[in-house]
Automatic annotation (TrEMBL):
Presence of keyword Cell membrane: no
Protein name: L-gulonolactone oxidase
Enzyme class: oxidoreductase
Signal peptide start-end: 1-30
Name of the gene this protein is made from: LOC123169797
């Protein structure tokens, strides 16, 4: 190692050490995330962004005004006001977590309807095991309300800062193949949705969709284009406990296990750490409530971190990305791995990890997100991605591959890794790895039509538009392989533009969805440029310009779409030859 590399590695080591101490100290305060909607003039002249603040100059989103209904009546009035003026509208949520520009009303003169104040429990029927909540309720509160009545939502995303309206609209999920499976929309048994209406009906109406209503399959995963969901009724189960063990194995049977593991354990998932040649299998099953244990699933990524550490960590990451070598990047990863919290931060008692299995109540295991809790501490600490500080900045790709094709897909990824293992150090965020979760086939028109494995990839994003990350070709090839070769479906709430190009054609029931959409919202008031592009109604989400492939705005077809000045050229994929990836010169 050169002196520079040694210095980088040393810096990384000391940073990792401080970070660990800080996390172990369980910081008390924490600045909750900023409001995604800001207006210069009260509730007029507004912009909306997402929780990462990643709507850049190109995707900046303006709206004429914002409204904050706190009852269904006020919501109906808000929709009616916009509809009577033929103004575009769109829902924004408390934190707006989707990466794509979904929260933006079309044009720049639209209305933002914020569901922040629609956050109450409407009713709980303990006997029939049903909960009805307003759509702006944050998952954390929903899970707590259910538990207080002795009930569980069996599956949910792992991050509890999402709202029920937003997570349904994008088809969000946890992991599981048993029963109805890992996606939350499978547990929806009723919705109340506010849509535009003819003038004679007052320009807006509430539609009540019961469990057997055919339109429920359009409304439960809707990208927000059929109206505003006002209330959601979910089928719950009696509160249960889970027993979780993270089993670390080599990759020898990874391809065989990918289709099997989900059948063996109710809450199974997998984490692949390609740079460490490891797979971590989540062995996670329901156990009787009498089983002893009070474990907590506090994933370390979702805890608050002191600002100084976030800024310092990012500076090192930027340096490693821009000027580091494979050796330095892999050394930093190795170091990070040795200092990781055990069990990803899960604990046996809310404080420390003392051994497997971790047994605890569903509501304390299924999701976490303590960085959104707690009082303002003037940004001394925050969620790692808080845009008000120069901390973590990432892309998050997420796509599903049918289970029947998953073994071949995994085999291809292993081949790609074996061609240049060191490339995987800088290419992917090393803190967790590739997360693989199970989602079952759904009747939702924009849901999965086959049992699938959903892959999540976090990777470095430069704050300079068009600046490549190290070994950008690795992620490019994995994504194109999943979507192109294996017919994968992009997660509606994640991904870069190109992933959605043509994807709607792979949804066999897309036409049924569009029919309901044009019945509910004939003038397309809830549609935007973005939703028209991804739904194949008008245009393409691809943007062809210099360096477009670096930002995932296109698949490269010319060197200028990469970053030739930084040594990144448009090349063929190494395993999937039809891929076109931005690759640094020295690889060829
Ligand atoms: C830290 C983090 C962790 C995540 N973890 C997971 C995970 O474990 N699993 C997973 O699947 N995804 C996960 N995601 C992605 C996430 O599921 C999606 O981004 C989700 O849609 C965001 O929900 P939200 O409440 O923030 O909605 P937003 O992003 O604000 O909204 C999403 C869309 O829904 C529409 N919408 C919202 N509410 C309504 C309503 N009431 N009526 C009509 N339309 C509405 C909005 O207009 C928008 O089009 C994660 C994201 C982050 C940032
Ligand atoms: C509207 O907001 C923009 C910034 O987003 C600002 O430049 C402009 O002056 C504002 N216009 C009015 C009329 O306040
Ligand atoms: C619901 O929203 C209101 C207004 O934003 C807020 O005062 C209240 O604390 C919220 N309730 C919960 C349970 O978060
Ligand atoms: C992988 O682990 C299995 C046991 O789970 C072992 O039999 C095998 O030898 C290991 N393979 C390698 C390459 O280490
Ligand atoms: C990388 O090196 C260049 C040239 O020495 C320098 O200008 C740049 O600031 C460095 N980047 C980082 C993040 O340190």
């Amino acid at each position: 190692m050169s002196q520079g590399e040694q210095a980088q590695t040393r810096a990384m080591k000391s940073l990792a050490a401080v970070l660990l101490v800080a996390i172990l100290l369980q910081l008390a305060g924490c600045s909750p995330p900023p409001d995604p909607v800001t207006c210069t003039d009260g509730t007029s002249n507004c912009t909306v962004t997402n929780t990462y603040g990643s709507f850049t100059d190109r995707t900046i989103c303006h709206a004429a005004n914002v409204v904050y209904p706190s009852t269904e009546q006020e919501l109906v009035a808000a929709v009616a006001a916009a509809a009577s003026a033929k103004r575009k509208m769109k829902v924004a949520t408390k934190h707006s977590h989707s990466g794509p520009k979904l929260a933006c009303p079309g044009g720049s003169e639209g209305t933002i309807i914020s569901t922040t104040r629609l956050n109450r429990t409407v009713s709980i029927d303990a006997e029939r095991q049903l909960i009805t909540v307003e759509s702006g309720m944050v998952l954390r509160d929903l899970i707590q309300a259910a538990a207080a009545a002795g009930l569980s939502l069996p599956h949910s995303p792992y991050w509890y800062g999402l709202t029920i309206g937003g997570l349904l609209a994008t088809g969000a999920h946890g992991s599981g193949l048993w029963g109805k499976g890992g996606a939350v929309h499978e547990y929806v048994v009723g919705l109340r949705i506010v849509t535009p209406a003819p003038a004679c009906d007052g320009f807006a109406m509430v539609r009540e969709l019961g469990a057997d209503h055919p339109d429920l399959d359009a409304a439960k995963v809707s990208l927000g284009v059929v109206g505003v969901v006002s209330q959601v009724t979910l089928a719950l189960q009696p509160l249960f406990k889970r027993s979780v063990t993270f089993v670390e194995r080599n990759e020898s049977d990874f391809t065989a296990q990918v289709a099997e593991w989900g059948r063996l354990h109710e809450f199974a998932d997998m984490i692949w750490q390609p740079q460490h040649n490891k797979v971590i299998y989540r062995q996670d099953d329901r156990v009787d409530v009498s089983a002893p244990g009070n474990g907590v699933g506090g994933l370390f990524l979702f805890r608050s971190v002191p600002t100084a550490l976030l800024v310092g960590g990012r500076a090192i990451e930027e340096q490693l990305q821009e000027n580091g070598t494979d050796i330095a990047r892999c050394a930093a990863e190795q170091e990070g791995a040795t200092r990781q919290l055990p069990a990803f931060g899960f604990t046996n008692d809310g404080i420390s990890f003392t051994g497997y299995p971790i047994v605890g109540y569903q509501h304390r295991i299924q999701a976490s997100g303590s960085c959104i809790d707690g009082p303002e501490d003037a940004l001394l600490s925050s969620c790692a991605w808080d845009p008000r500080i120069r901390g973590s900045f990432m892309y998050n790709s997420g796509f599903s591959v049918a289970l029947s094709k998953a073994p071949a897909f995994i085999a291809d990824m292993l081949n790609l890794r074996d061609l240049n293992p060191d490339a995987f150090c800088g290419a992917l965020d090393g803190r967790v790895g590739l997360v693989l979760r199970y989602v079952k086939a759904s009747s939702a028109y924009l849901g999965k039509h086959e049992d699938s494995i959903d892959v999540d990839i976090l990777f470095y994003r430069s704050r300079t538009d068009g600046m490549p990350h190290a070994h950008a070709d690795v992620v490019d090839e994995i994504e194109q392989m999943a979507l192109g070769k294996y017919g994968g479906l992009p997660h509606w709430g994640k991904n870069r533009n190109f992933a959605f190009d043509g994807a709607i054609a792979r949804y066999p029931k897309a036409d049924k969805f569009l029919k309901v959409k044009s019945r509910y919202d004939p003038d397309g008031l809830f549609s935007s440029e973005w939703t028209d592009q991804v739904l194949g109604i008008n245009g393409t989400p691809n943007i062809i310009e210099n360096r477009c492939a670096i930002e995932g705005l296109c698949i490269c077809s010319d060197d200028s779409h990469c970053a030739p000045e930084q040594g990144y050229f448009c090349r063929l994929g190494k395993v999937y030859k039809k891929a076109r990836v931005c690759s640094s010169e020295e690889d060829y």
